[in-house]
Structure prediction request, 206 residues.
Amino acid sequence: MGWNVILLSSGFSNPAILAMVEDAVRDRSYQTGCVITTAHPKKQASPWAKATKKQLEKAGLSVSFVDFDAGDKIPDKADVLYICGGNTYHLLSSINTAPFDVRERVRDVLDHGGLYIGSSAGAVVASSNIATAGEVGGDKNDDKIDDLTGLSLTPLYVVPHDTPEQDHAIEQFCSAHSLDDGDVLRISDDEGVFIDSLQGVVDVVS
Prediction:
């Protein structure tokens, strides 16, 4: 298991993906995780956030909620970072204005063998640029951010909740940004993309 980034559309809706995470927690002796709720308007009260926390705890982790908007920091000993869905622009804005360097902290977790799991907005923000959030996904840029640089855990543009109905929007997106189809990572709700952040995409589980 060389991967250290998992990108999802709809949390652990696919039991096979959750089972792989449970195996990783055991095999890599992970102990601590956090669920980052910043993107969702309901924060830790979101049903998705609460369900994910329980799933990670059942996998054997001690899990806390983290909200950058509330000034929370990623725990020093975090092995697993789970970034919830919601509004991608707000998530990125909060990452950029957090009272600590979120990018550096995420890289530190990965450099020490930890795991990044991003669902929906959490998957999009893992890319080098979150432009798909608005141009394909329909997120509103109410935070009025101009710099769309993401966490750059993958060079691919990420599209969660993928369906055939998005084909035209993705074609337009690629044309507008001089991209090929292979530059866009499309993830359906039952898929998980497992990435080695140094080697690129290594597996898709559906």
